[in-house]
Design goal:
Number of helices: 10
CATH architecture of the largest domain: 2-Layer Sandwich
Shape: globular
Number of domains: 2
């Protein structure tokens, strides 16, 4: 009886301490916000092989270079003195470098990065940024300038408690934040030669429901996109490209927010297959590109000069019944789903306004119900 009472007292104490730990974790979570609350993980990966700093810096240090040809001792001393001065200059230039070739621009809640480098030099660096940040890239399309990550979990959203600290290293898989994010990066050629624009957006999923005694009611639903998270990842990209942390935060804060709110209307009364944006072509092109990213469209290519986005779209709202494969179909192989049809979203400048229409594969105006649904999605995202 004493053993049972002691065990009951011990379990009660554990429950009370656990409750206190869970209540205290909210304050810990609130104290870490913004950039500090980002710790994404897609897969478990090994850290890259690191080279000692002394070995990487030796190649650029004049002290470790043998003099070429024949020389005198006085000439050797002069070269060593010159090497020391150049070494001091190099060491100071590598500490907290100031990057003047990057700036942040803003239009409403949308922020993007402008880099004074051509796209062919920026694209591989952005790809390295995502992989070094712990993401797995599902789409790497240099032709379309598109990078899409796999679904990843922000482990910083998991409450920190003494139970997790004690068992986290052993049973890390028991804890889940209940959220997933997928980031999409679009590398765009700027209208100014030699410059590149970088846009980051994301899709957010949240776990809803609960487990019952009979069945699982847990499902994943689409959540709202957080512009602050896009800005935080953009600031981290700036640091990865060579800017210092304070400089990235300062540029992000100094970006002026435009108060202009674009008006979207139909091209003609009753026409649901085209729309008009009350902005210049430059701003409308940017907004349509972001709307395509947020809408989850598959962009095959884009031609800014011609004003065309080449996208693929599967219309699931045609009213046709979708036949589910039966047992024998699954056994012997079901039919492949129909391929996504390609559409061309065409932008035409009309003074201070921009018209958006849908063209088919032959370049003709598409007025089908599918084109109307594409326009409706774009209008809701702009």
């Amino acid at each position: 009886m004493k053993v049972f009472q002691g065990y009951k007292w011990f379990t009660t104490l554990i429950a009370v301490v656990a409750l206190v730990g869970l209540q205290g974790c909210n304050s810990l979570r609130d104290s870490f916000s913004g950039d500090d609350a980002i710790n994404y993980r897609s897969v478990v990966r090994a850290d890259p092989l690191s080279i000692p700093p002394d070995l990487t810096q030796a190649a650029g240090d004049p002290r470790y270079k043998a003099p070429s040809g024949s020389t005198t001792y006085s000439a050797y001393q002069q070269s060593q003195a010159a090497g020391k001065s150049s070494q001091a200059a190099a060491s100071t230039s590598g500490v907290l470098p100031q990057r003047t070739d990057m700036r942040v621009e803003r239009d409403g809640d949308l922020r993007w990065l402008v880099v004074n480098l051509p796209p062919d030099q920026v694209f591989p660096k952005v790809s390295d940024f995502w992989t070094e940040s712990g993401f797995v890239l599902d789409v790497v399309d240099p032709k379309a300038g598109l990078l899409v990550t796999n679904w990843a979990e922000n482990r910083a959203n998991i409450p920190e408690s003494w139970i997790r600290q004690a068992l986290g290293s052993v049973l890390e898989g028991l804890w889940d934040s209940g959220t997933r994010d997928k980031f999409r990066t679009r590398v765009e050629r700027s209208s100014t030669p030699g410059r590149t624009e970088i846009y980051i957006s994301h899709q957010h999923m949240e776990e809803k429901g609960a487990l019952s005694t009979t069945e699982s009611n847990v499902r994943w639903v689409n959540g709202r996109e957080d512009p602050g998270l896009n800005a935080a990842m953009l600031a981290r990209l700036m640091v990865f490209l060579g800017d210092d942390v304070d400089g990235a935060r300062r540029k992000m804060a100094q970006a002026q927010r435009s108060p202009q709110d674009p008006k979207v209307s139909a091209l003609a009364p009753g026409d649901k297959t085209a729309l008009v944006i009350s902005e210049s072509f430059e701003r409308a092109w940017r907004r349509v590109g972001v709307a395509l990213d947020s809408g989850g469209f598959s962009v095959d290519d884009r031609d800014r000069t011609a004003g065309d986005f080449f996208v693929r779209y599967v219309d699931t709202d045609t009213g046709a019944r979708r036949e589910e494969p039966g047992f024998f179909s699954r056994l012997f192989g079901a039919k492949e789903p129909p391929p996504a049809q390609q559409f061309r979203i065409h932008l035409t400048a009309q003074g201070d306004k921009t018209e958006v229409t849908i063209l088919d594969a032959d370049g003709k105006r598409d007025t089908s119900p599918t084109a109307a649904r594409i326009i409706d999605v774009l209008g809701s995202k702009i």
